[in-house]
Amino acid sequence: MTTQAGPDAGARDEGQPARQSAGRSAGQSAGRPVGQSAGRPVGSAERVPAPVFADGPRGVPFLGNLPAFGKDPLAFFEQLRERGDFVRWRFGGKQCLFIAHPDTVGELLTEVERSFDQPDLGIAFRTLLGDGVIVSKGADWRRKRSLVQPSVRPKQVRSYAATMAECAVALADSWADGRHIDVKKEMAALTQLIAVRTIFGVDTAADAEAIGQAMDIAQREIGAEFSGIGAVLPDWVPTPGRARIKRATAVIDAEVSRVVSRHRDGDTERPDLLSRLLAARDETGAPLSDREIRDETVTLYIGGHETTSSTLVWTWYLLSRNPRVRDALTEELDRVLADHEPGYDDYASLTYTQAVIKETLRLYPTIWLLTGLAKEGATLGGTPVPAGTRVWSSQWATHRDPRWYGDPEAFRPERWLTGEDGEPAEEIPEYAWFPFGGGPRVCLGTRFALVEAVLVLAVLARRYHLDLTPEEIHPVPSLTLQPDRDVLATIHARA
Fold first, then answer.
1. pLDDT tens digits for 449-482?
2. What burial letters (b/e) apply to 36-49, b meaning 16+ CB within 10 Å?
3. d(Cα 258, Cα 250) in Å, to the nearest integer?
C-alpha cells in the first residue's frame, strides 16, 4: 500500500534516482549516486507506450482474482507484468487495471489529485491511519501537507540525524564478537527508539515497547485484511482480525494521547516532530486538531520506524549473501569516516552506502504497491480510463523488470553510481524505481528514511559484519514488506 503524502522539499536527489546510461563496469564504485533524470519527462509522446490491453488470469465468481492475489500478491503482480504493461483484472467485484511501464507509472503518480483519487484501502487501514495526509484528498490533503511538511524538510532532518547516529552507536556498543542475534528484532528496537526520540521526544523503554508491539499487530492485520476475504466484506462485518487491530489501535491512541498531553503541559520548547506539529498553523491561523495530531503522528511513526527497520533487515540479508558488496561498503566506510562516527555532514560522501540502500529498496521495496481510482476524464498512455477503474502498480514488479535493469535479480549497488567521467553505470528510466512513490504525493519522509538508513548502516557496518544463516528468506507483503521468519545472524567484529 502506498504511503505517498506530499512533496519533500530537497529530497529529490536522494528520493528519486535518475535515468542512467549503460556500459560501465559493475565493479566501479567511484562517483556519486545519480539524482535528477536526464531523460525526457514522463508523459513524452515519444516514450509512452501505445496501450495494448491484455486480460489477466481468469478469476472466480464474486471474488474475481482475489484468491490468486491473496495467496501470493508479489507473484501475482509479476504474472500480470509478464502479460503486458496494461492488464485488466478484477479485485472482488471491482474492475481493475494493472500498469507496469515506468512512463505510465509516472503518469499515475503525477496525475494523482487531478485525474486519480486515493482509493479506500479498507477499514483496517483506516482504523490505524485515520484520515491523515496519506489518505486525505483535495483541499484537506493540501492543508495537512502544508502543516506536516515543514517538520521533515532537510533542515529538520539534519537536526534529527544526531539522534539517529547516537542510537546506532549505543546499539553498536552493546554488540560483541560472536554474539547471536535476531536481526529483525535488533533493527526494530533501534528504529523504534529513534522514532520515539525524534517524533515524541521521549526514549523510555515503555514508550517504545508499547507502541512498537501495537504497531506490529496492526501491520499484520492490515496485510491479512487487504489480501484476504476481509477485502470484500462490508465494514460492519466483525472479524477476529478487525477486533485485534482495534485493540492495537487503542493502545497506540492511548500512548500518543499521553505524550501529547505531556507536550502541551510542558513549558519548554522541544525539538521533536510532535512539538512542531503542535505548533503548526494553517493559513487561517488554525492548528491541527487533536485527532489530526494523532493521525499524522502515527503516519510519521510508520514512515520513520516500519519502513527503515524493514529496509535495514533486507540490507543485512543481502550483504551477508554478497561478500563483494560488503567489502566495497566497508572500504568506503573506512576511507570516508576514518576514526569518527558518521553524522549528517558525512551523508553526501557516503555514495556507495547510499547505493546499497537504494539497491535494497529496489529488490525489497518496503512499500510494494500503490493504487489510484480513475476520475472522469482520466487517461493513461493517451487512452481513456473509465471513471471508477482502480489502477494498480507494484514496485516489486517494476523494480525487477529485465527491460529496465541488467540482471534484475542481482544485488548490484554499482548500478546507482556514476564514474569519475560522469557516465552512469546503467540506464534506468525515471519511475523504474519508486519505493517512495512520486509526483505531488511523494512520501514526505523520503529524506528522513534515507538519511536514517544510511547513517545506521554506516555506524554498524563500520564495526561489524553480520553473517546470516544460509536459509533463504522470503518476503511477506503486509503493510510493509517483511521477512517470513526470524532473521538470525552471528556478529563478527571487524579488525
1. 999 999 999 999 999 999 999 889 999 888 788 8
2. ebebeebeeeebbe
3. 12
